[in-house]
Write a structure and sequence with these properties.
Number of helices of chain A: 5
Number of strands of chain B: 20
Distance between the termini of chain A: 21 Å
Order of helices and strands of chain B: HHHEEHEHEHEHEHEEEEEEEEEEHEEHEE
Structural class of chain A: alpha+beta
Strand order of the largest sheet of chain B: 4-3-5-6-7-8-9-13
Shape of chain A: globular
Number of domains of chain A: 2
Oligomer: heterodimer
Strand content of chain A: 25-35%
Helix content of chain B: 25-40%
Largest interface: A-B, 24 and 19 residues
Order of helices and strands of chain A: EHEEHEHEEHH
CATH topology of the largest domain in chain A: Alpha-Beta Plaits
Largest sheet of chain A: 6 strands, antiparallel
Helix content of chain A: 25-40%
C-alpha cells in the first residue's frame, strides 16, 4: 500500500520552511515525518501527514506550490545491517530509488524507511514477498493527530 | 471558446471601409489644417518649420508630411505644462497627464470636439470586435489622469454599452462585480486581466462559466502567447486596443474579429514607419518605429510623433474588408529594450523562449545586475503546478532547459531562478517585467 507524500517548494531564505510548518501547526495538523532536500537556491520539503488531503487544501489555499507523490514505507529492524538488507533486495529486483528518508517512531520498536520509487506499483509487486510494506494505518497508529 | 455571436455592422464603422482615394484626400485636407493650426499657435512647431524654411502651404500632397520635423516625448516635457496647446484654454474641456516616472508628467488637452473624436475612435474599435448596445462593460483601467480609464469609458458609452467604471485595484471586488453584474466585456491591461483570472480561481470562480465574452486589452506590449493563455484560461476573445496619451489615449487602433493585426483609424491618426536610427520613412511591410500624426485633434495637434513602438504596416488587406491599414501587433517598444553585454534584448524574446518550453506562461521577471563591471541577466520564474516536482533534479532539469531556450534566442548566458508562487509582485496596471539594478550612473 502506497502513502501520499506532500512536497512543497521552498525558497532558500530564512523563514520559508517555518511559514509552511507554522501554517500546519496553527491548524492543528501534525507532521509524522519530513525531509528537506536543497539545491543552491531552493529546496523541496517533503511531509508525511495522516490527513494529507486537509493539509494539501490548506497549503494550496495559502499559495504554496504543492505536489502529491506516492511513496512506499518498508519496515526495518532497529539493528545493524537491516537497511542494507532491504537495499540488497531492491538491487536484486532492479528497483531504482529516487530518494529515501527514515521514519523512526512507533511501529512496536521497529522503524520504517520511506522510499520514492520511479514506479511504486512495480516496485511493490517485485519486493512484497521479501520485504514488509508498512500500511498507512499502521504507520500513523501511534502518532497523535 | 464562448461564441462571439454575429452582429449586424454598426453604422459607426462606415469610415473603416472608405475607398482609399477618398481617404487620402481627406487625410491631406486634415493634415494641411493641422499644420496650419500648429504653425499659427504652437511656438515650438513654428520655430522648427522656420528653421527649415518650410511654410504650411508647402504641404501639397500626403507624402509632403516627410518635410515636417518629428515630435518626441521630450518636447512635451520641455514645454510643460501647456506649451504645445494650439487652442485657448477656454476651448479646452479636459486635461490628462502621464504618470511620469521621471520628473514632470506630460500633459495632454482636448476640446469638446476632440473628446468626440476620441470616443468615436474607441467606439469604432469596439464595433470592430462586436461590442454593441446591451453589452455590460467593466472598465478596469485606472481612472484619473491616465487616459486608459476615461478613454475606454467614453468609447463604451458612445456605442451604447452599460458601463461599470470599476477602475483598477481591489481585484476580488472586480471579480465579484464581473460575476454579479453579468459583465460581457472587460477593458484593462492584459497583465491585470491575468491577475483577475488568478484571483477568480482562488475565489473558486471559473471565468469560463461567466457571461464575459471579450476583453479589450492594451496600454502595454503583450505577445501572442499571452493572448493564447488569456483565451484558454478565461474562455473569452482577447482583442488588442492601441493608443497613447500623446496622440489621444486608447483608440488609435484596434484589432478586429480577424485578430490579424490592428487597424489604425487613419482618418484621425496618420501612421508612418521610420528607421529609428535615421528617421527615414520605410515602405509598408518593413519593420521600424511607428510615427503618428493627429489629423482631427485641435487642442493639441501632434505632428509626426515618435511612439517608440516597433511594428510594421501590413501590406495585405484584412479579411474583414476594412480599407484602413493595419499595423502588426506591438510586442515591443524601443523603450523596453535593454542592452546587456552589447546585445539588444526585448522582454518579449524571453517570453517567447519560455513559451517554447512551457505551454503555460509562468509569472516571470527579468533582473539585471552588474558584478565587477560585468552585466548579468537573471530570469526569475515562479514555480506552478507544471514546473514543480518532488524531485530536486527534475526541477533543476526544467531550470536548465528554460535557461538553454533563453540563451539560444539571446545568444548570452542567463541565470534562471525558480521562485515560490506569488513571490513576484503583481501589477494592477502595466506589468513591470524588467528590474534594472545595474545603477548605470555609478
Amino acid at each position: 500500500m502506497k502513502l501520499k507524500q506532500i512536497s512543497l517548494f521552498v525558497e532558500n531564505k530564512p523563514g520559508t520552511v517555518n511559514a509552511a510548518l507554522k501554517l500546519l501547526a496553527d491548524n492543528g495538523i501534525n507532521i509524522s515525518t519530513l525531509s528537506l532536500s536543497d539545491s543552491k537556491f531552493f529546496g523541496v520539503l517533503r511531509l508525511l501527514i495522516r490527513d494529507w488531503e486537509k493539509a494539501r487544501d490548506l497549503l494550496e489555499s495559502h499559495q504554496f506550490a504543492v505536489k502529491i507523490t506516492d511513496v512506499v514505507a518498508i519496515e526495518v529492524d532497529h539493528a545493524a545491517g537491516s537497511l542494507s538488507r532491504v537495499l540488497e533486495v531492491l538491487d536484486r529486483n532492479q528497483v531504482n530509488i529516487e530518494y529515501l528518508y527514515a521514519f523512526a517512531a512507533g511501529l512496536h520498536g521497529k522503524a520504517a524507511i520511506i522510499f520514492r520509487f520511479e514506479d511504486p506499483d512495480d516496485a511493490i509487486a517485485k519486493i512484497k514477498s521479501e520485504l514488509k510494506i508498512v500500511e498507512p494505518l499502521d504507520l500513523f497508529r501511534e502518532i497523535p493527530d | 471558446m464562448k461564441p462571439n455571436k454575429a452582429v449586424p455592422m454598426n453604422p459607426i464603422s462606415a469610415m473603416d471601409f472608405i475607398p482609399q482615394e477618398q481617404l487620402h484626400s481627406l487625410q491631406l485636407a486634415r493634415l494641411r489644417d493641422m499644420v496650419e493650426l500648429a504653425y499659427a499657435n504652437v511656438p515650438l512647431f513654428k520655430a522648427r518649420l522656420d528653421e527649415r524654411g518650410i511654410k504650411p502651404d508647402d504641404i501639397q500632397k500626403l507624402e509632403d508630411i516627410r518635410l515636417l520635423p518629428f515630435t518626441v516625448k521630450a518636447d512635451l516635457r520641455d514645454t510643460y505644462p501647456f506649451g504645445l496647446f494650439a487652442t485657448p484654454m477656454k476651448d479646452v474641456v479636459r486635461l490628462h497627464a502621464s504618470s511620469g516616472t521621471t520628473g514632470k508628467p506630460i500633459v495632454v488637452a482636448y476640446t469638446r470636439e476632440d473628446l468626440n473624436v476620441w470616443s468615436t475612435a474607441v467606439a469604432r474599435a469596439l464595433a470592430a470586435v462586436g461590442v454593441h448596445e446591451g453589452d455590460i462593460a467593466q472598465i478596469s483601467y485606472g481612472y484619473g489622469l491616465f487616459t486608459g480609464g476615461l478613454g475606454a469609458h467614453g468609447g463604451f458609452e458612445h456605442i451604447g454599452a452599460t458601463v461599470i467604471p470599476a477602475s483598477g485595484g481591489n481585484t476580488e471586488r472586480q471579480v465579484m462585480l464581473m460575476k454579479d453584474f453579468g459583465v460581457t466585456c472587460v477593458a484593462c491591461t492584459p497583465s491585470y486581466f491575468l491577475h483577475m483570472i488568478e484571483t477568480a480561481e482562488k475565489m473558486g470562480i471559473d471565468m469560463r462559466e461567466l457571461p464575459v465574452r471579450l476583453g479589450i486589452f492594451g496600454a502595454e506590449p503583450w505577445t501572442e502567447a499571452m493572448r493564447a493563455l488569456i483565451e484558454k484560461k478565461s474562455g473569452i476573445k482577447a482583442y488588442d486596443i492601441y493608443g497613447l496619451s500623446e496622440i489621444v489615449g486608447p483608440g488609435v487602433g484596434c484589432s478586429c474579429m480577424e485578430q490579424d493585426g490592428l487597424h489604425i483609424f487613419e482618418d484621425f491618426f496618420y501612421p508612418e514607419i521610420i528607421d529609428p536610427a535615421t528617421g527615414e520613412v520605410l515602405p509598408d511591410g518593413q519593420e521600424g518605429e511607428l510615427v503618428l500624426t493627429t489629423l482631427a485633434k485641435r487642442a493639441m495637434p501632434m505632428i509626426r510623433y515618435r511612439t517608440r513602438d516597433i511594428t510594421h504596416i501590413e501590406t495585405s488587406q484584412c479579411a474583414c474588408g476594412r480599407t484602413i491599414r493595419r499595423i502588426a501587433k506591438i510586442g515591443r517598444r524601443s523603450d523596453d529594450m535593454f542592452i546587456i553585454r552589447g546585445v539588444n534584448v526585448f522582454p518579449s524574446q524571453i517570453e517567447t523562449a519560455i513559451m517554447s518550453v512551457e505551454s503555460v506562461l509562468p509569472v516571470y521577471q527579468i533582473i539585471l545586475t552588474r558584478d565587477h563591471g560585468l552585466d548579468n541577466i537573471e530570469v526569475d520564474i515562479e514555480v506552478n503546478e507544471t514546473l514543480f516536482h518532488d524531485r530536486v533534479s527534475a526541477i533543476e532539469d526544467i531550470r536548465h532547459t528554460l535557461g538553454h531556450a533563453i540563451e539560444r534566442i539571446l545568444g548570452i548566458r542567463v541565470f534562471v531562478k525558480m521562485c515560490a508562487p506569488n513571490s513576484i509582485p503583481r501589477s494592477e496596471g502595466k506589468a513591470k517585467r524588467v528590474i534594472d539594478r545595474r545603477n548605470l550612473n555609478a
